[in-house]
Specification:
By secondary structure, the protein is α+β, with helices and mostly antiparallel strands. 43% of the residues lie in helices and 16% in strands. The chain is built from five helices and six strands, in the order ααββββββααα. α1 packs across α3 (133-152). The chain starts with 6 loop residues before the first helix and ends with a helix.
Length: 196
């Protein structure tokens, strides 16, 4: 479910958390605006990379690169622009499929598995309109926490912002985990536990 947020509304919500007045433009010459513009992308990327957010996952068939690795692996595959994290690779692309040994270096995935190579990647979604609303709350809270440290130097604001981060992450993670049907592993684990 996309949000109606923009970069400005995300930043203004973060400013609300620390009791600062809203911004009217991203080019305003105010300390808090400069901090937000400078740090926004980093906070979004770190939050995206931290967990497997469903809205940011894309399925890819990776293309084998013409360069043969010097040692250890037989092939390398180019990762697409905007990738932030490679989820575990399996033979058929299924989460519960047979795992494929691999490693990620720079913008390539190295493995001895030949084509085709299916991968699920966390992509760099910087546009708030593409986010889950609960992920938007998480980014707002993290920006607010960063602002509290950088601007207010007030322990009460820092503590409140940290609590907002913890609560936003817990809720976003919980709801995100229950989207989609349970995988084969989860179903077997439930049956196994009930049998104990």
């Amino acid at each position: 479910m996309p949000t109606s947020h923009s970069v400005e509304t995300i930043m203004n919500s973060a400013l609300d958390l620390v009791g600062e007045r809203p911004i009217l433009s991203l080019v305003e010459n105010r300390k808090e605006v400069r901090w937000l513009v400078r740090n926004y992308s980093h906070y979004v990327e770190a939050s995206l990379r931290q967990d497997v957010w469903n809205f940011a996952v894309e399925m890819w068939t990776l293309n084998q690169d013409v360069t043969v690795p010097a040692y250890r692996w037989k092939y390398r595959y180019a990762l697409p622009n905007g990738w932030l994290r490679v989820l575990p690779i399996t033979v058929d692309g299924e989460r519960t499929g047979a795992p494929i040994k691999h490693e990620v270096k720079s913008n390539f995935l190295y493995t001895s598995q030949n084509n085709p190579l299916y991968a699920e990647l966390i992509m760099n979604r910087q546009e708030p309109g593409e986010w889950d609303p609960l992920f938007a709350n998480l980014v707002i809270a993290r920006l607010g926490h960063g602002l509290a440290h950088a601007l207010t130097h007030k322990a009460s604001y820092v503590q409140l912002a940290k609590q907002a981060v913890d609560e936003a992450y817990e809720l976003a993670q919980l709801v995100n985990a229950f989207e989609g049907s349970p995988g084969e592993t989860e179903q077997h684990d439930v049956i196994r536990v009930r049998g104990l």
